[in-house]
Amino acid sequence: MFSPHGPSLRELVIQALSSVERGYDLLAPKFDHTPFRTPDGILAATADALRPLGPFGQGLDVCCGTGAGTQVLAPLCQGRITGVDFSAGMLAQARATHPDAEWVQADVRELPFAEDFDLAVSFGALGHFLPEERPALFGGVFRSLRPGGLFAFPIGAPPPLTSAWYWTLLGFDAVMRVRNAVWRPPFVMYYRTCPLHALRDDLTAAGFTVTTVPLAALGWREDGSPRYRLVLARKK
């Protein structure tokens, strides 16, 4: 599916019936040929928005997957770049593609760092965490940053109620909830559990000062609001 080099429908079904970790281990060799990998346009817009705030020292990619976030961190960070993920398969792909970075296998709800980084980023991963898990995630990122450090991630505007995309995402989340109610192990991936106001509240509770900037290169909605914003969470 998706491309001649992408996973087959059968492979996607097997992934969806696995745990999150096992599913991504299976998908890893073909992950970059799917829409699940963050598009280069979003990565470039994020880098452009962060550039005036740098340069930075050491960089951390939280839930790094196959390492696409290094495209953002490499030109902005003068020190070591580290990616962390719990999927050994995804890390193997990242290590092969970006051998100059450091790759760490860990549960990001229990990050093994303490004031080691100046910039942390994350792309497309928040849907893998239930709302009650976000405090552990954000708390770990907070501890991993040096004082004054920055945690940044892009977030898309919610689709309007009248759009087909709204109902597609609603249907996907409903199917995932049914799947997790009747099948074990669970596969946590929801698109509608991360509204900006909830993320802002959780980041503030973790100790961050939170602002956002529009990613203008990614366009604007009919009401004049940006299609994407970059969340900037600064460690006080």
Automatic annotation (TrEMBL):
The keyword Transferase applies. Keywords: Methyltransferase, Transferase. GO terms for molecular function: methyltransferase activity. GO terms for biological process: methylation. Residues 60-149 form the Methyltransferase domain. It holds the Pfam family Methyltransf_25. InterPro entries: Methyltransf_25, SAM-dependent_MTases_sf. PANTHER family: TRANS-ACONITATE 2-METHYLTRANSFERASE, TRANS-ACONITATE 2-METHYLTRANSFERASE-RELATED. This is Class I SAM-dependent DNA methyltransferase. It comes from Actinomadura fibrosa.
